[in-house]
Amino acid sequence: MIMTVDEQIFGFNKYAFAAATLLTIFWWNSRVAWESITVYPPNGLQLETCRGLPFFPSISRKFVPNVFIRDVLINEALHRWSARYYLALMVNPGDEYELLVAFKETLPHFPILLEVYQGVQECLKLGHIPHDIFQGRTSI
């Protein structure tokens, strides 16, 4: 099949070029830009994930009330031949306990998790946010 100049863009079929462009846009929109955990001492915690392009972000938030939080912990999981650490919230919204994983997509290293863990524990224990505690946030 012979293509005319109108059917080609940079030497490629214009439909293949459009499909590749749409796949690239979809891939960029599904990438995680950053994740955060925010403590609201009298109320609870909020887990937040931002996906997509900087000028068109898609942010998902999950708020966990303080009355449902039983503990915040750093857990270890085995993945293939290595161990990975993750920050989890043990919640009890009903009859069963459940683990909500913070930083599920970015999976920061242990020293960063430890710093965020200590900050969250201090905020929950004191009931207010001290001046030297920051919002726990990781990005790729």
UniProtKB/TrEMBL annotation:
One of its GO terms (biological process) is GPI anchor biosynthetic process. GO terms for cellular component: glycosylphosphatidylinositol-N-acetylglucosaminyltransferase (GPI-GnT) complex. Transmembrane segments: none annotated. Residues 36-104 form the Phosphatidylinositol N-acetylglucosaminyltransferase subunit H conserved domain. Pathway: Glycolipid biosynthesis; glycosylphosphatidylinositol-anchor biosynthesis. InterPro entries: PIG-H (IPR044215), PIGH-H_dom (IPR019328). Belongs to the PIGH family. This is Phosphatidylinositol N-acetylglucosaminyltransferase subunit H conserved domain-containing protein.
